[in-house]
Design goal:
heterotrimer; A mainly alpha (203); B mainly alpha (214); C alpha/beta (280); B: 8 helices; extended; C: six-stranded parallel β-sheet
Chain lengths: 203, 214, 280
C-alpha cells in the first residue's frame, strides 16, 4: 500500500530528484542540491555548537577561566574573512595543525612501517608467502626513481622489475575498482529499498 | 620585522611546540607531559568545533552575493539555501539535535539527500566503466580482467555456481592486493611522515595562508 | 554517437547512458521484489570479528563509533545491529559515540530497530549502554578519547553528566575498553593508530568495500582484528548471528547488479576489440 505519510513523500521526492541529476541537469536536481548543501551546513553548525557549549562555554561559566584561551582562538578563526586581520586566524590554525600533525605523525612509524614490515617477513615456505614477499619488494621497486644503474644490463633488468611492479599494482587497482562499484551498488540499493518498501509499500 | 615575527614566526613556533609536545607524549613516559598533551587535545577539539562553522559562513556570504546579483533564477536557489540553513541551525541549536523537531527535519530532508547524493555516483561510475575501461594495453587488460573476476565473485549467484571464483577472489584480495597495497602504503607512509615533520619544523607553511603583507 | 552506417561493433560501444542507468535500476528492483536467498560464504575477516566478539565477557566495555552517514546506512546500520547483537548476547556493555556529524541521527535511527534487542536482554540506558554524542576534531578527538574520555565528553547525548551515569563511572580511558569498533567511510586508519598502535586496544573496522583494499594490509598484520567488508560483511555477520536482515537482502542485489556491470564491461570491450580487428 503506497504511503500516505507526507514526510515519506518528501523523502521520495528528494531521492528521485538527486537521481535525476545522473540523467541530466534539471531544476529539481538543482533544488535538491541546494537543499542538501544548506542542510549539511546547518547540521554541521548544530553539532559544532554542542561541542563549543559543552567543552568550552559550560566549563568557562563554571569557573574554568583557562578555557577562554581556546574559545578566543576559535573565534579568531573567523578573522580570515577580514583582509586586514586575516593574520590573526593563523594562531588557531597553527595550533590545530600542530596538534593534529603531532597526533597523527607520532603513530605513523610504528603503524605504517614497523608493523607492516614485520608482517612482510613471512616464512618462505609456501607459494603464497613467496609471492607475497616478492610482490611487496617488486612494487616498492617501482617507486624508486632515483636509482642510476651502473650498467646497461642492470638498467634493462630494473626496467623489467618496474614493469612487473606496474602489472602487479594494476591487478590491485582492478580489484579496488570492482570494490568501488560494489560499494556504490550497495549504497544505492538502500535507496531503492526505501522507494519500494517504505514509499510504494511493495515489500 | 616585528610584524613578520608576530604574523608568521609566532604561529610557526606554536605549531612546532605543540607538535613536539604531542610527539613527546607518545615517546616519553612523563605524567605531567601526558596531562598537558591531553589538555591541549581538548583545546584542539574546541578549536576544531569552531572551525566547523567556517564553511557555513562562506556559504552565507556567497548566497548573499548571489541574491544581490539577481542573475537568472540563481538568486532564488540562494534564498532557498539560506532558508533551509537557518531552519536547521535554529532548530538544532534551539531545540537540540536529540529533539523530535530536529530529528523530523533531519530524517525528512537531510537523510534522503545524503543517502542518495554519493550513491548516485554509481551511474557515472557505470558509464565510465562502459566507455573508458577498454583493453588497450597489458596493464589495462589486467585491470579489466581482475575487475571482472571480483565483480562476478561478489555476485552470490555466480559464486554459488562457480565456487572457484571465490577461491580466486580470496587469493587476489588476501595475497596479491594486500601485498601491492602494502608497498603503496609504505611509500605513502614515508611521504606522510616527511610532510608531517616539514609542517612541524616550519618548512611547510601553506596552512598559514598567503604571504602578501604577512 | 554511433550513426546508422556504423558497424555493430561501434554501436556496441555507444549504447545511450540512459539505457545503462535504467538497466542498473531494474537490476536492483527485481531482486528486492523477489529475494532469492542464495548462500553466503563467510570471509576470514568477518570470522575473526565474530570470534573476537565471542571472547567478550559480561561487564566488558565495547566502544562503538557510529561514524556512518546516510549514504552508507544501507550496510553500516545492519552491520552495527549484527555486531551489537553479538556483544549483547555476551553481556558486554556498549558505549556508543560519534566522530562524524551525521552520527547522532544515524544512532537514533539504528536504535529504533535495535531497541527490542536491548529490551529483550533487559538492557537499561545508562547502566548497560550509553550514547555520548558527537565530538569534533577527528583524530585529535580519538587521541583524547583513548587517553581520557572525559576530555572529549562531559555529558552524554541527552545532557546527563558522565559522572551521574552508572556505566561511565567505570569507563575512563583505553584501559577500560575491551575493544572498539568503528563504522566509517572516512579514515579507519586513525582508529587503529590511536587505539591499537599506542594502547593495544583490540580494534575492529566496518568500512565500505571500496576502502577494504587500503585496510586489508592492517588486518593481515593483526593491527585490525576484525574487518567487515561493506554490505557483504554485514550480510555475513547477520548469517553468523542467524538473524538475516537488510544486509542479506542486499546480497541478492549484488547478484544482479554485479553481473550487469560485468556485461557492460564485456560489451564495451568486445565492441572495442572487434572494431580494432576490423581495422576501422
Amino acid at each position: 500500500m503506497i504511503s500516505t505519510d507526507p514526510s515519506i513523500w518528501v523523502m521520495a521526492f528528494f531521492t528521485i530528484a538527486i537521481t535525476s541529476l545522473a540523467f541530466r541537469d534539471n531544476p529539481l536536481a538543482k533544488f535538491a542540491e541546494h537543499t542538501f548543501l544548506a542542510a549539511t551546513a546547518g547540521n554541521l553548525v548544530t553539532m559544532a555548537w554542542r561541542n563549543v557549549y559543552n567543552i568550552g562555554l559550560q566549563p568557562l561559566m563554571k569557573g574554568s577561566v583557562i578555557m577562554l584561551v581556546p574559545i578566543l582562538f576559535g573565534v579568531a578563526l573567523y578573522t580570515r574573512y577580514s583582509k586586514e586581520y586575516m593574520w590573526v586566524s593563523r594562531y588557531p590554525t597553527a595550533m590545530m595543525v600542530g596538534i593534529g600533525t603531532g597526533v597523527t605523525v607520532r603513530a605513523f612509524v610504528e603503524f605504517q612501517f614497523i608493523q607492516q614490515i614485520i608482517d612482510t617477513f613471512k616464512p618462505l615456505n609456501s607459494f603464497n608467502n613467496i609471492f607475497f614477499v616478492a610482490t611487496v619488494i617488486i612494487c616498492l621497486t617501482y617507486f624508486i626513481y632515483s636509482l642510476t644503474p651502473k650498467s646497461q644490463a642492470l638498467e634493462k633488468s630494473m626496467s623489467y622489475v618496474t614493469r612487473l611492479g606496474r602489472y602487479l599494482m594494476m591487478v590491485a587497482f582492478g580489484a579496488s575498482m570492482a570494490n568501488t562499484v560494489i560499494t556504490r551498488v550497495g549504497q544505492y540499493a538502500g535507496r531503492i529499498m526505501f522507494l519500494l518498501y517504505d514509499w510504494l509499500g511493495l515489500g | 620585522m616585528s610584524i613578520k615575527i608576530i604574523r608568521k614566526t609566532v604561529p610557526l613556533v606554536i605549531t612546532f611546540l605543540v607538535g613536539l609536545l604531542m610527539i613527546g607524549q607518545w615517546f616519553l613516559n612523563v605524567p605531567s607531559l601526558d596531562e598537558l598533551a591531553t589538555f591541549l587535545q581538548q583545546w584542539g577539539i574546541l578549536i576544531a568545533a569552531f572551525a566547523m562553522g567556517l564553511g557555513s559562513v562562506n556559504i552565507i556570504i556567497r548566497s548573499v552575493h548571489r541574491i544581490q546579483k539577481r542573475e537568472g533564477t540563481d538568486w532564488l536557489y540562494a534564498i532557498w539555501l539560506l532558508i533551509v540553513f537557518f531552519l536547521f541551525a535554529i532548530t538544532g541549536i534551539g531545540f537540540g539535535p536529540a529533539s523530535s523537531q530536529y530529528k523530523y527535519i533531519f530524517n525528512t530532508i537531510l537523510q534522503p539527500l545524503s543517502a542518495t547524493m554519493y550513491p548516485a555516483t554509481l551511474f557515472f561510475l557505470v558509464s565510465a566503466i562502459y566507455r573508458t575501461f577498454k583493453i588497450r594495453t597489458v596493464e589495462g587488460g589486467l585491470f579489466v580482467i581482475v575487475s571482472a573476476i571480483i565483480l562476478l565473485a561478489n555476485a552470490p549467484i555466480m559464486s554459488a555456481s562457480l565456487p572457484f571464483l571465490v577461491t580466486l577472489k580470496s587469493w587476489i584480495m588476501d595475497v596479491e592486493l594486500t601485498a601491492a597495497y602494502r608497498a603503496i602504503l609504505l611509500g605513502i607512509g614515508l611521504g606522510a611522515i616527511m610532510l608531517g615533520f616539514r609542517i612541524i619544523f616550519g618548512l611547510e607553511t601553506t596552512h598559514l595562508g598567503r604571504e602578501e603583507g604577512t | 554517437m554511433a550513426g546508422k552506417q556504423d558497424s555493430i561493433w561501434i554501436k556496441l560501444q555507444h549504447i545511450p547512458r540512459e539505457i545503462l542507468y535504467i538497466l542498473i535500476i531494474l537490476s536492483m528492483i527485481v531482486p528486492l521484489l523477489r529475494p532469492m536467498g542464495l548462500p553466503i560464504t563467510i570471509s576470514p575477516q568477518t570470522e575473526s570479528l565474530f570470534d573476537s566478539l565471542n571472547t567478550l565477557e559480561p561487564g566488558d566495555v565495547m566502544l562503538e563509533f557510529i561514524d556512518w552517514s546516510a549514504g552508507s546506512m544501507s550496510f553500516h546500520e545492519p552491520g552495527c545491529i549484527a555486531v551489537s547483537f553479538q556483544a549483547v548476547k555476551q553481556g558486554a556493555k556498549l558505549v556508543f559515540l560519534s566522530s562524524a556529524t551525521e552520527g547522532p541521527l544515524m544512532y537514533e535511527l539504528m536504535l529504533e530497530k535495535f531497541q527490542p534487542v536491548f529490551d529483550e536482554a533487559g538492557y537499561v540506558y545508562g547502566e548497560d549502554y550509553v550514547y555520548l554524542g558527537y565530538v569534533a576534531g577527528q583524530e585529535t578527538a580519538l587521541a583524547a578519547i583513548a587517553s581520557d574520555i572525559r576530555t572529549a565528553f562531559s555529558i552524554d547525548y541527552y545532557g546527563t553528566p558522565l559522572d551521574e551515569i552508572p556505566l561511565m563511572q567505570t569507563v575512563h580511558n583505553y584501559a577500560d575498553y575491551s575493544m572498539i569498533i568503528s563504522y566509517t567511510m572516512g579514515s579507519p586508519e586513525s582508529f587503529v593508530r590511536q587505539f591499537n598502535t599506542q594502547y593495544n586496544v583490540i580494534t575492529h573496522i566496518h568500512c565500505g568495500e571500496m576502502m577494504t583494499p587500503t585496510i586489508l594490509p592492517f588486518w593481515a598484520s593483526g593491527q585490525i582484528t576484525g574487518l567487515l567488508n561493506g554490505g557483504v560483511g554485514a550480510a555475513e555477520m547477520e548469517v553468523l548471528n542467524k538473524r538475516p536482515g537488510d544486509a542479506v537482502k542486499l546480497t541478492d542485489v549484488y547478484s544482479f547488479s554485479n553481473i550487469l556491470v560485468f556485461i557492460f564491461l564485456l560489451i564495451g570491450n568486445v565492441g572495442f576489440i572487434m572494431q580494432r580487428r576490423m581495422g576501422k
